[in-house]
Amino acid sequence: MKKFVVGFVSGAMIFSGATAFAASGLLGQKVQSVVTIEKAGVKIADGAVINGSIYAPVQAMAKATGTTVTIKDKRVTIGSPSATNNVSTSSRANPTEVGKTVNFNYKDGGYTGTVAVTQVLRGAEAWEAAKEQYSDFASEPSTGYEYLFVKIKVSILKVDKVGATADLNQFDYRLISTSGTEYGTDIVLSPEPSISTKVYAGSSHEGWVGYKVKTSDTSPLIAFSRNYDGTGGVWFKTK
C-alpha cells in the first residue's frame, strides 16, 4: 500500500476529486490501487486510485483540514474553514473568546497545533470545585484573591523532533492581569485532569490549569507560546 502525505492542501484541491467523481461517470470503474493519506505522520484515510487520480472520503479530508462539509440530497457542499482563529489575529489586543480554537506554533516547545480555552471557573464556583476534588487538602486563597480554573484543549499537529512527544506544561499558560502584569507561578491544585502531559502528533489532550487571581482583577488573560520578550503568542479571554 502506497502512502500519500498531505502537507498543506487547499480545500479546492482536496475536493476537486470528489466533484469529478460525481460528474465523470466513474461508478463501476476499476480501482487501480489504494494509498494511505497522511498529515504530519498521522493517517487520515485510505484513498482509491482510479484512472490516475486519487479519491478520498470527503468527511475525513474535511475534518483533517478544518473545512466544513454538508451532505444533503446526494449533494456535497464545501463550506468555509471551521471556527479557528488565525494565529495572527490572536493577541493581547485581540484575545480569543472562550470556546474558540486558535492555531499556534510554539517554537520553544518544538511543536505546533491548535488550542482553545473550553471552560472557566472562578470565585465561589472554582472554590466548590477545589473542595470537591481535594476535600482533605483544599484551602481558601488569601484575602483579596480567589481561584481561577481554566480548562484547555490542545491538539498536536506536528512535533519538530520526529517520533518525539510534545511536552504540555501548565506553566506554559501564563495569567496576565487586566492591567498587563504577569502573575507568578504558584502551584494551585486545580481539578483533574491537569493540562500537563505528553502528547504525540495527531493526538489531543484537554485538562485544567489553576491560578490565584486578585478578586479586583476583572478581565485577566491567558497567554501561551509567547516569545521570550513577551511578544507574540496566542491570547485567551477568561470571561
| Helix/strand structural class | mainly beta
Instruction: Give the terminus-to-terminus CA distance.
Output: 49 Å
Could you estimate the helical fraction of the residues in percent? 10-25%
Shape: elongated
Strand order of the largest sheet: 7-8-9-10-14
Give the amount of beta strand, in percent.
Answer: 35-45%
* Main sheet properties: 5 strands, mixed
Number of strands: 16
Tell me the Rg in angstroms.
Answer: 22 Å
| Oligomerization | single chain
Salient structural properties:
mainly beta, 5-stranded mixed sheet, 4-stranded mixed sheet, 42% strand, elongated
Write the layout of secondary structure elements.
Elements: E1 2-6, H1 11-23, E2 33-39, E3 42-50, E4 53-55, H2 58-65, E5 67-72, E6 75-81, E7 84-85, E8 101-106, E9 111-122, H3 124-133, E10 145-159, E11 166-168, E12 173-176, E13 197-199, E14 204-214, E15 221-224, E16 234-237
Parallel strand pairs: 1-2, 7-8
Antiparallel strand pairs: 2-3, 3-4, 5-6, 8-9, 9-10, 10-14, 11-13, 12-15, 15-16
Helix pairs in contact: 1-2
Describe this structure in words.
The longest helix is centred in the N-terminal third of the chain and has 13 residues. The chain is 13% helix and 42% strand. It has a five-stranded mixed β-sheet. The N and C termini lie far apart (49 Å). Strand 5 and strand 6 form a beta hairpin. The chain is elongated, with a radius of gyration of 22 Å. About 11% of the residues have low confidence. With 239 residues, it is mainly beta.
Summarize the structure.
The chain has 239 residues and is mainly β.
